[in-house]
Amino acid sequence: MLEYGLYLVTGRELLPEGVSYLESLEESVRDGHVSVVQIREKHASYDEFLQIAKASLAICDKVRRGLTQYNAKMIINDSVEVAEALPERVGLHLGQDDDKLVDARRRLGPNRVIGISVHNAEQARIALDSEADYAGVGPCWGTQSKAGITKDDVLMLDGARETVAALARTQAEAPPGARLRIPCVLIGGINLRTAMRTLIGASSDMNAPDGFAVISAIVARRDPGRAAAELYAALEAYRAVCAQRTSSIATAPLSKTHAPPPPFSSAAELVDAASKLLAAHHVVYNRETHTEDDSKVTVPRPLVQTITSHVSSYFSANVALAFSASPIMSHEAEEAEALSRATSALVLNIGTINAEARKGMATAGPAANARGTPVVLDPVGVGATPFRYESTNEILNQTQVTLIKGNASEISTLVGSKEVQAQGVDSVGSLSNPAHLAAQLARQEGSLVLLTGEVDYLTNGELVIESRCGTPLLGRVTATGCSLGVVVAAGLASAKHVYGIELGTADVQRITPPRTHRALLIGALMGVLSFTIAAERAERTPGVRGPGSFLPALLDEIAALDPGALPEHLDRVKVMDQDYWSVEAILAENQRLPCMFAVDVPGLGYLEESGEADIHKNTRIELAYWMAHMLAIYEIVTIQQPRAFGSRVRAALDASTTSVQLHNLLPYWYALAVRLARLLDSDTLHAMLAKTYVGRISRIYELAILLSRASAETGARAADAALTHDMQTFLQGLDESEQVLLAAGQAATRTMQEYLAGSD
Questions:
Q1: CA dist 236 to 164, 290, 535, 627, 747, Å?
Q2: Residues with Cβ within 8 Å of residue 576, at least 6 apart in sequence
Q3: Which string of DSSP letters, residue by residue, matches 589-608?
Q4: Which residues contact 703 (CB under 8 A, 6 or more apart)?
Q5: In what order do the strands lie in the sheet with 464-467?
Q6: Domain boundary at 562, 581, 600, which?
Q7: C-alpha–C-alpha distance, residues 114 and 84, integer Å
Q8: Cβ-contact 58, 25 below 8 angstroms
Q9: 143 vs 160: CA distance, rounded Å
Q10: Residue 588's pLDDT is what?
Q11: Which cofactor does it need (predicted)?
Q12: What is the rounded distance in angstroms from the CA atom of residue 365 to the CA atom of residue 306?
């Protein structure tokens, strides 16, 4: 099977002055990081193209020191004639031309590797049924190497994800004998800065890219070998993320530790750590004596550079001062590099983005990355216009941000969800699962994510913190959201100092992203709680009658906030780890499926724990759901039906659907059944699932009504006593999905009872 990982497309016109094409190519492939080389000669004659191709093939086939091959598969771009004149081991890549693909396959035979470019999901679906061996998906971003590309042609993450997903299908969707997926590589504007986020952003539950193609990221370098090694490291980091995507994040190594990272087992420990960090950071203002108490402060006052709108600059600067930070509101690109030597954090806010601000952000962001300085991005109204969306993606490609702060609409836009729409810079609608969406964006961008609203969600992609502090008044005045970003940035700077966090340079952060530094959550949480608790107190201040009098009171309350205020609001902070908020993560983490390998796979012997290096065909083993699912799509394993859905369980359900305790079989029995039924295309499993649901749902709602009515009349304990033994046994056996339905039924019954009581 061909390895499509790092795919180099040549371009002699992009070579640095004085650099030889063949020398550059050999340096690019000599260490084995490049797996495919596509020879691209748009303007060469047939004879010149063939001569270049033969010389290139000699390098790709070269044996280094008589021991190992350079290990690069060669592909010819667009010329069937040149490919036909070369050995069969040389492949061909074509653009969007179905007739040319059919002709090429006829002329080159069945054994040649032939790839095809796809630019949207429809073309991808056609490619899946074609004779192509792989697909190039793009352009993901704007690129200088291909003329005629417009903004409308660029896929960005949404389009890339949709197109890659269309290159795979389930067994139920595939015609008899048809393949389930076609390998693919991403192309277009991909470099060391964009590689990681593009690979992750183009991945979905349905499919994921096998690698990515680059041109100038290697060809235009004077050290192409090093460039290839750096890009390969990004590819390996992406593969590690895919392999470990259901595992908890390990704390990134620190070069120095001022304090050990706090535990993350409970909301109480998180809030306590945030309170202690606030004490180390904040100079408390005494409103009675007009004095400041800095007796507990151990953190240097952070200098926060903010590039934001002129509308919010004034208030954001004053909030920074009230929160014991020093603001500098500079948009100037000319001084960004110099400022980065002194700043402790950077805030990029696109509220009123213009050419000056974009230029400043393009300089300040990378400068902050180079010094390991936390960067907060506030993509205000990113879904409102294409200009804002493109500007935000430009920032994300230029800068590895530490935290993204946004409302439901903004987070939805960045993650590619259409669930919430933008109306200007405001959200219209609500999210069905905001915690999951925020965590998805965190994994996509490698950053912390703060989703703000009536309930705030803070996550590193694995652990989600829910906070219900704040007041609606925050949404009735301008600049409060922008100033929250400044407070959070100051919190990140203080956490970085207290816990000795080293974010590393931009290249390091792309591979070991900020979200892996879990202690940063403490800094962000400190900022969120401080700001929202102060807002609540400001609302209750005598003399505050509305938005106009609220803002001055908010400044006063931030300045006077005592660290002890945070633990007082513990009851409104909840930790939602992946076992709580992500059914898919639970299934991947805890549910294992019996599988049999259909082929020999080198290097996976450790899965069997047999001591052998490789795993062999017909080996039976239990694998986590996420791994089994992906290997089944690649036709590497076949999945056997688990015991929880076997003949004995089926017979028991046939006899009485309500007699089986599903929770004892699997806590998420329905969730796994749905996925398996789709994956295995099992009519039997579909039928069992439908019959079980229909047979049990009416009983669940009967008990919901009984419990709700009995509780209203006699109290919860008496309601439990009203249940028969069979009823109690049934309730104990509800799987997690059924428990949600039971709670919904009880809530609906209570609402109806209250309505009827009111109508009397």
A1: 19, 56, 45, 17, 48
A2: 435, 463, 464, 465, 466
A3: HH-EEEEEESS-BTT-GGGT
A4: 723, 727, 730, 731, 742, 745
A5: 326-328, 303-307, 345-349, 375-378, 403-406, 448-451, 456-459, 464-467, 573-576
A6: 581
A7: 12
A8: no
A9: 15
A10: 38
A11: Mg(2+)
A12: 11
What tokens were used for 6?
């790092």
Amino acid 206: pLDDT: 85
Rounded Cα distance between 622 and 265, Å, is 29
Q: What is the pLDDT of residue 717?
A: 47
Question: What's the rounded Cα separation, in Å, for the pair 486 and 327?
Answer: 9
Number of domains making up the chain: 4
pLDDT value, residue 420 = 52
CATH code of residue 230: 3.20.20.70
Which residues 6+ apart lie within 8 Å of 331 measured at CB? 307, 356, 357, 360
Contact 443, 396 (CB under 8 A): no
What CA–CA distance (Å, rounded) separates 232 from 28? Answer: 11
Whole-angstrom distance, CA of residue 122 vs CA of residue 167: 10
Domain that holds residue 465: 267-581
248 found inside a domain: no
Residues sharing a CB contact under 8 Å with residue 36, sequence separation 6 or more, in sequence order: 2, 3, 4, 6, 7, 8, 72, 73, 74, 75, 185, 213
b/e map 422-445, b = 16+ CB within 10 Å? beebebeeebeebbbbbbbbbbbb
Among candidate residues 211, 243, 275, the one where a domain is terminated: 243
* b/e per residue 586-621 (b: at least 16 CB within 10 A): bbbbebbbbbebbeebeebbebeeeeeeebeeebeb
pLDDT beneath 70: ranges in the chain: 1, 63-70, 97-98, 143-151, 241-265, 418-432, 577-591, 608-610, 626, 630, 681, 711-722, 758-760
Rounded Cα gap, residues 36 and 231, in angstroms = 14
**In 615-730, which ranges are E strands?**
620-624, 637-639
**Bridge partners, residue 135, by sequence:** 116, 184
Instruction: Identify whether 250 is part of a domain.
Output: no
And the tokens for 331?
A: 């948009």
Residue 736's CATH number: 1.20.58.2050
Q: What is the DSSP letter of 211?
A: E
Identify the residue whose tokens are 């047939």.
46
Q: Are 551 and 599 in the same domain?
A: no
> Do 662 and 609 fall into the same domain?
no
Name residue, tokens 């945070």: 566
- With respect to residue 256, please indicate whether it lies within any of the assigned structural domains: no
d(CA 137, CA 117): 6
CA torsion 442-448-452-455 (nearest 10°) is: 90
Q: Are residues 626 and 646 in the same domain?
A: no
Task: Return the sign of the alpha-carbon dihedral for residues 272, 276, 281, 284.
Answer: positive
pLDDT at 531: 98
Residue 282 and residue 563 in contact, taking contact as beta carbons nearer than 8 Å: yes
442 contacts 582 by C-beta, under 8 angstroms: no
Residues 508 and 615 both lie in one domain? no
568 and 659 both lie in a single domain: no
Domain membership flag for residue 740: yes
CA 562/CA 537 separation, integer angstroms:
12
DSSP assignments along 416-459, one per residue: T--SSEEETTEEES--S-HHHHHHHHHHHHTSEEEE-SSSEEEE
**What is the model's pLDDT at position 263?**
55
The sign of the dihedral angle between the CA atoms of 227, 228, 229, 231 is: positive
Write the CA distances from 706 to 661, 699, 710, integer angstroms. 20, 11, 6
Structure tokens at 756: 């009827």
Residues 73 and 209 in one domain: yes
User: Are 540 and 554 found together in one domain?
Assistant: yes
83 is written with which tokens?
A: 């490919």
The predicted structure's pLDDT at residue 150: 67
